[in-house]
Amino acid sequence: MAGMDILGWSAAHWFELLQSAGIICGLLFTGFALRDEKKVIGVQTLFTITEHHRDLWTQLYSRPDLSRVLLGQADLKSRDITTDETRFINLVVLHTFAAYRASKAGIYVRPENLSKDVGGFFALPIPFAVWSNLKESQDRDFVSFIDKSIVDFKASQSAGTK
Fold this sequence. Notes:
Blueprint: H1 2-12, H2 14-62, H3 83-104, H4 114-122, H5 125-134, H6 140-160
């Protein structure tokens, strides 16, 4: 008897059922499309970040006047940090911030050892000095990420020398 009621109701309301099924299918399709679009955006972001990373570091390796940036023993007392060195570190900070924000937004998967890489760079004398001046104007969570990366890198280096 209950089956007859359902069939009778279905026959009387077939158009509403069809509309509802269409709406549900449309929502499911939209959800799958958005998920796929997020993956595409993530890959596009990865390519963009990689391209900017390559351009930035190509500049460092093609300009001898910037070679001191990577020196672990750069003497900042005998020779001040140059404007070009400061400008380069600023670009690295901007690049790192963009990657950090994209990662926080969920559109870029942060590489496993990014913190070690960031800490190793910003622990160097010139990047550390420039970062110390720049961090006042940066977002707190980004400053925490860089500073923690530096501390962790230095701790891993001192643990490795024991």
